[in-house]
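Possible regression after last week's pipeline update?

I re-ran a chain I had predicted before the update to compare outputs. Posting the input and the new output here so someone can diff against the archived version. Not blocking, just want to make sure nothing changed silently.
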Amino acid sequence: MMILPYTLGICLLAVTISMLLCLIRLVTGPSIVDRLLALDTLFLNATCLVVILGIYWATSLMFEGALLMAMLGFVSTAALARYFTTGHVID
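New output (post-update):
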């Protein structure tokens, strides 16, 4: 009996619920900082979801996609944080 598919199913469910909660915080956040942190966490959860799906489907292409998503999430979070603090992204 293999336990890996059941464990990955539970992980997929947990990450999906976490993404739903982050989406709720993104929409109803009381301040812009809360919305920015929810967006950053949503990027992180999406990256985790892609990694879990890569393990489940046994393909290495999903890991490259997860790396691209992580880089895009970091750059967009840094750019949005700079925009909200100074009013512009590039000096």
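Follow-up from reviewer: compared with the archived run. The chain is about 85% helix and 0% strand. Marking as no regression found.
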